[in-house]
Amino acid sequence: MAGTTSARPLSLFDVAGRALSAQTVRMNTAASNLANAGSVSGNPQDTYRPIKAVFATQYDQATGLATVNVSRVVQSGAAAVREHSPGHPLADANGDIWAAPVDENAEMVEMLESSRQYQNVVEALSTAKQLMLDTVRMK
After folding, report:
1. Are the beta carbons of 2 and 57 closer than 8 angstroms?
2. How far apart are CA 108 and CA 120, in angstroms?
3. Are 43 and 98 in contact (CB under 8 A)?
4. For labeling, which of 23, 62, 127, 139 is most exposed (least CB within 10 Å)?
5. CA angle 70, 76, 80 (to 5 degrees)
6. Contact of 98 with 79, CB cutoff 8 Å
7. pTM of the prediction?
8. How far is 90 from 61, CA to CA, in rounded Å?
């Protein structure tokens, strides 16, 4: 779960870069889930399963800063949704097809939240840049 770094101390830009990267992965997994929301298959084993990014906190001993990283992307264990559609070309002997168990509303919320987090980090970087420029101008 929590790791430590020992190379050079982390800067604000390192922390922000890792946060931006993590939110990008989060947004991409939600986009992938939404893209596959309407997919169906002829059996439950071949049905698309939603994916989620798993975050891990990493602490820098030199600065005490914590960063977030994507430790892995995992597949949901949600069961495929059975739909009776005897005329569908993928229907099994019972006339059933299996739909991806993607909650489109939850995925839209996930995309919105990750987008807002990304925007917050960009705003923090912009503020830090402005403060640095103001400091340089003071000399």
Report:
1. yes
2. 18
3. yes
4. 139
5. 155
6. no
7. 0.83
8. 55
